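Much of the work behind modern protein science is quiet bookkeeping, done one molecule at a time. The protein below has been through that process, and both of its lines are reproduced in full.
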Amino acid sequence: MVNKNILKIRKKLDQLDNYFLNLVKKRTLLVDKVLKNKKYKKDIVDKKRIKIILKNINKKSRHKNIDPKITELIWKSMIKAYIDYEFRNFKKK
């Protein structure tokens, strides 16, 4: 049986997950706006921007005392997911 402390903590994690889902929704709406401004499929992947994002996340993670390996994996996964999303939703003009 799971102890009460773990159950309380899991409840807080569930609440945080719900908050995170709202942020994903907001981020997706912004990605949609960016996508509407891209003329060509080749514009979807911007390697220079990805490199800058990952570098900034690494720096901010260290500053906030968060394991940068965790944030790097999360952001790489998120970037990959959004690139896939953009390719699936790209509309030729």
Observations:
- The chain has one domain: 4-89.
- Residues 4-89 form a domain with the Chorismate Mutase Domain, subunit A fold (CATH 1.20.59).
